[in-house]
Amino acid sequence: MASERCLAQGCSAPGPVPKGKIRIYSMRFCPFAQRARLVLNAKGVRYDVININLKNKPNWFLEKNPLGTVPVLENDCGQLICESPIVCEYLDELYSEKKLYPTDPFEKAQQKMLLEEFSKVVPFFYKVPTGKSKGENTAAVEQELKEKLEKLNKILVDKKTKFFGGNIVTMIDYFIWPWFERLDGYGVRQCLDGAPQLQQWMQNMLEDPIIKATMFDGKTHKAFLQSYFDGKPDYDLAL
Predict the structure, then answer these.
(1) How many CB atoms lie within 10 A of CB 165?
(2) 82 belongs to the catalytic site
């Protein structure tokens, strides 16, 4: 059972994952869940998607993950893995033919440290539109986000590579990308003005076939995020 439309309270639970398959519980516009879908697609894994209404979650989903967050990965043994970095690392080890994390332990540790640093940036993408929806002056928040993006820019300057992990797309690029895909939706593209290498990284990412095949356009993201910040998220937008 795959579900493009989100399942809410009262919807029947899907059956067991078919033998030899893998299932992801997701939400079409969730950047954290997008990380896992990017990795699955990059590895060429066939998978089922069950989209969840995160504002009105089915009880059976909360039994799988009491925190109620996505992504959640379920294999054909009924084993469940939650939290996007853990899900993605599990997939990288399970489908090891095309590794996305570096094999060198130090380089892998560097990517994990950068992910930890980026996790502190993520809240600022939401603070700006949230503040604007409340009629607040967001200049200070935008300036702080701009400074954080300039630090990311400096990493690319120092590395002298096309991507954060080198000259090919690796795990850290897929971890960071979803928030940059949504820049126009968040209304923070101007915060990239002092980060030319980061802008070039975005252009490089847009050439990746996995990104091309899985992304939504800026107009769609903007429409969903507007519904989200209005308190009525349209999870089934454009279906």
Answers:
(1) 22
(2) no
User: Looking at the domain assignment, is residue 239 inside a domain?
Assistant: no
Supply the pLDDT for residue 200: 98
Domains identified in the chain, total number: 2
State whether 87 and 44 are in the same domain.
Answer: yes
CA atoms of 116 and 112, how far apart (whole Å): 6
pLDDT tier, 3 (very low <50, low <70, confident <90, very high otherwise): low
Q: Does the pLDDT value for residue 174 go beyond 90?
A: yes
Non-local CB neighbours of 106 within 8 Å, separated by 6+ positions: none
pLDDT at 1: 44
Residue in 6, 11, 30, 88 annotated catalytic = 30
Q: Which two tokens stand for residue 29?
A: 């516009």
Secondary structure, 3-state, the chain: CCEEEEECCCCCCCCCCCCCCEEEEECCCCHHHHHHHHHHHHCCCCEEEEEECCCCCCHHHHHHCCCCCCCEEEECCCCEEECHHHHHHHHHHHCCCCCCCCCCHHHHHHHHHHHHHHCCCHHHHHHHHHHHHCCCCCHHHHHHHHHHHHHHHHHHHHHCCCECCECCCCHHHHHHHHHHHCHHHHCCHHHHCCCHHHHHHHHHHHCCHHHHHHCCCHHHHHHHHHHHHCCCCCCCCCC
Q: What pTM does this model have?
A: 0.96
Token pair 């640093």 in the structure block, residue: 117
Alpha-carbon gap, residue 43 to 210, rounded angstroms: 10
Q: Do both 80 and 123 map to the same domain? A: no
